[in-house]
Amino acid sequence: MEVIRSMARMKGAAEEMRAKGVFGLVPTMGALHEGHLALIRRAKRECGGTVVSIFVNPIQFGPAEDFQSYPRPLEHDLSLCEREGVDLVFHPDPEEVFPQGYRTYAQVEGLSEILCGASRPTHFRGVATVVLKLFNIVTPHRAYFGEKDYQQLVIVRQLARDLNLPVEVVGVPTVRDEDGLALSSRNQYLSREERQSALSLCRGLLAAREAFRNGERRAEALEAAMRKEVEKPGIVVEYAQVVDPLDLHRLEQVTVRARAVIAARIGKARLIDNMLISEADETGSGEESR
Fold first, then answer.
1. Cβ proximity of 69 and 30 under 8 Å
2. pLDDT for the residue numbered 197
3. 138, 259 contact by CB (below 8 A)
4. Which domains does the chain have, with CATH numbers?
5. pLDDT tens-digit profile of 190-217?
6. Cβ count within 10 A of residue 176
7. Which of 36, 91, 123, 141 is flagged as catalytic?
8. Model confidence over 12-39: pLDDT tens digits?
9. Which residues, other chains included, contact 185 with Cβ-Cβ below 8 Å and sequence gap of 6+?
């Protein structure tokens, strides 16, 4: 496994990989867990070569967010990548990707300002920009993103369509611990008590899905079922909505397809989760992995 730090070397290595056949990219910010490994394993199954990027992207963090404290266990991450049979790891310095004087950004309008974007106004601009740069540098045939970050997945798909990028964006189902908590690098911020509180997010999503399966079609009632589980002491709910999985607009009635999406702050951690609640989600597998 080769670890690449420079964009020039990464471009050369990508040309060599493309000459051999289809290869996939797994973009990460490091602090790898089983959710990331599910992306790597999917890429390994479907592609002849696999590249993992490890880059804590400074431009997707707001001024008061956790860029400086975000976990960076590089040696552990590299060990996991090697164990999983990754071919290349792209780990550039921030100054390599965003040199002094950088001033060009990508923005997916209409999708970036809602849900998580309402409280993190520059976040998805940063995500879209770094993903576009990674696609241009690494030039993968396929790129793998987790459904846990569902809004990000929808935005990256729109970015690839709108800019005619020659890459297939593949969504991979959420990976959960046995108790249902969606895996996240930020889970390590949680104390034992806070982690127990965090289970309310999954319970809220399950409550909405159960209400739908029992015949409820009013989004307002489905959202109330979520909030009943999540609005507990120590949990600050940012949103709990039922949305169309294609364009993320808030629904009034569930007719064909719907996802429940939720975000909450617990202690120092801001956690997000989502779940298919209808039977006709056209965007992904519709299943949750444990």
1. no
2. 97
3. no
4. 2-172 (3.40.50.620), 185-276 (3.30.1300.10)
5. 999 999 999 999 999 999 999 999 999 9
6. 18
7. 36
8. 999 999 999 999 999 999 999 999 999 9
9. 29, 30, 31, 33, 70, 71
**Are 36 and 121 within 8 A, CB to CB?**
no
**Sheet containing 142-146: which strands, arranged edge to edge?**
2-4, 88-90, 49-54, 23-28, 142-146, 168-172
**Greatest pairwise CA separation for the chain in angstroms:** 56
Threshold 0.90, pTM exceeds: yes
The single-letter code of the amino acid at 278 is S
36 is catalytic: yes
